[in-house]
Amino acid sequence: MFKKILIANRGEIALRIVRACREMGIESVVVHSTADEAAMAVRMADESVCIGPPSSRQSYLNMASILSAATLTGADAIHPGIGFLSENEEFARMVEEHGFTFIGPTPEHIAKMGDKAVAKDTVRALGLPLIPGSPGILKDAEEGLKLAREIGFPVLIKAVAGGGGKGMKVARSEDEFKACFTMASSEAKAAFGNGAMYMEKYLSHPRHIEIQVIGDGQGNAVHLGERDCSIQRRHQKVIEECPSPALTDEERKYIGELAADCTRKMNYRGVGTMEFLYEDGKFYFLEMNTRLQVEHPITEMITGIDLVREQIMIAAGHKLSFTQEDIKFDGHAFECRINAEHPETFIPSPGKITRYHAPGGLGVRVDSAIYDGYSVPPHYDSLVAKLIIHAKTREEALKRVERALGECVIDGINTNIRLHERILQEPAFRAGEFNIHWLEKLLASQAEESKKAAS
Ligand code: MV4
Q1: Whole-angstrom Cα distance, residue 312 to residue 102?
Q2: Which atom of ligand 1 is nearest to the CA of 156?
Q3: Residue 225 C-alpha to ligand 1 middle, in angstroms?
Q4: Which residues of 117-147 are buried (b: 16+ CB within 10 A; e: fewer)?
Q5: Could you identify the atom of ligand 1 that is nearest to the CA of residue 133?
Q6: Per-residue pLDDT in tens (0 to 9) along the chain, 455 residues
Q7: Distances (CA, A) of 322 to 88, 214, 258, 292
Q8: Residue 263's closest CA among 220, 324, 318, 307?
Q9: Distance (Å) from CA 286 to ligand 1 centroid
Q10: Closest Cα to residue 72, out of 80, 82, 64?
């Protein structure tokens, strides 16, 4: 087992990994920029190394500085956390080349799943359902139109170089296809320097369902159920929950086992998340994330499995210590992402926290690295706390989320706590009746109402 792990990340996820290390009797080293000198993970870790100025490029993305810090402190392994270098194949390779263990998948799997086209070919061959669409890049609008007629309108024209919702355009009929294709391609060329396009059947009201999988790279893999991440705004998740209120037990078993089988056949090592769109009872593979996810705690609450601990055990060469039959799903969990931002305008709100009080009680977990007097730096993402709630049923969990939000005190900066409270009051949300467009439609209608009220 590792004696010392270097954590190449910041904020609440760095603290989350420090906690797992401490429980496992492993020393932790946290690297930080000059903007994060007062970060809680820096204080809680056994050691810390300043690796550069505030800019991510010169600190948390600076491979040489991170590797130097690992050498200087005598770390055995490096945990990349989430974001930053966590899905960077070159970094994973450099870590191993410098004699450290990379706590994550092999560089080959990171590369394979990082290329969306290769990822689709891989999982298609392993039996996962995909969105009907073009086999590859579209030669021109003519070819696209011909295929669109076969698939049926509406279709979604997507930029190969796009991602995270960028470079996508819906074509709703033959008449508008060519104009859409030409516009999408020139926008992609301008934005990404690459105007290559592909096309898929457009799913107009899907949910975003993701499956947590773990493989040990020694022939074993399991799934840990799904997370419903449909409540999102501009591709930023706001509230996640598991299990999904939309899935039946049969659907859950079907897609979970399909994802686990695919993970096993790939001989995948580490934790991973397979993302799907779910519409009218059908699943469509979107992509696979080869890292831990922000929302992993709701899966931990339901299964009782510590995902960071599992990552470390697998990276140290251990086989999975449980089979699919050992995994039980208990209750319902929500995660509310608390951001340092204005609840209506979403403008980031860094600054000094003058008073902080975290909620508590049965089934309430707060993953956060803020404290009284902490100053939220302006250089990074605005996530300051994750309110994670667990209860026996979804109804009880809903009550508990509202109660816990009411207890939460974060003064001195703006937060989106009021946004969470608004969402929780919506009957459609409470009934579990939403899709990926629901929150943006709600916000648009509320903005409309307040404009009318103001005029
Ligand atoms: C789609 C889609 C509907 N139909 N593909 C957005 C980002 C990227 N992960 C894929 N995305 C989508 N692809 C087809 N054929 C709708 C989305 C989409 C979306 C997907 C998941 C979560 C949130 C989303 C928000 C807007 C659009």
Answers
A1: 10
A2: 15
A3: 21
A4: eebbebbeebebeebebbeeebeebeebbeb
A5: 15
A6: 999 999 999 999 999 999 999 999 999 999 999 999 999 999 999 999 999 999 999 999 999 999 999 999 999 999 999 999 999 999 999 999 999 999 999 999 999 999 888 999 999 999 999 999 998 899 999 999 999 999 999 999 999 988 888 889 999 999 999 999 999 999 999 999 999 999 999 999 999 999 999 999 999 999 999 999 999 999 999 999 999 999 999 999 999 999 999 999 999 999 999 999 999 999 999 999 999 999 999 999 999 999 999 999 999 999 999 999 999 999 999 999 999 999 989 999 999 999 999 999 999 999 999 999 999 999 999 999 999 999 999 999 999 999 999 999 999 999 999 999 999 999 999 999 999 999 999 999 999 999 999 98
A7: 29, 11, 18, 19
A8: 220
A9: 8
A10: 64
- What is the number of the ligand 1 atom nearest to the C-alpha of 131? 15
Protein residues whose CB sits closer than 6 Å to any atom of ligand 1: 131, 156, 164-165, 200-203, 206, 208, 232, 235, 277, 286, 436
Residue 326 DSSP symbol: G
Atom of ligand 1 nearest to the CA of 164: 7
Which of 10, 16, 227, 291 is catalytic? The answer is 291
C-beta of residue 383 within 8 angstroms of C-beta of residue 338: yes
Six-digit token string for 12:
């609440």
Is 418 in the active site? Answer: no
Angle among Cα 14, 20, 21 to the nearest 5 degrees reads 90
Ligand 1 centroid – CA 101 distance (Å): 34
Residue 307 amino acid letter: L
- Which residue puts its alpha carbon closest to atom 3 of ligand 1? 203
CA 437–ligand 1 middle distance (angstroms): 10
- Going from the Cα of 153 to the center of ligand 1, the distance in angstroms, rounded, reads 16
- What's the length of the chain? 455
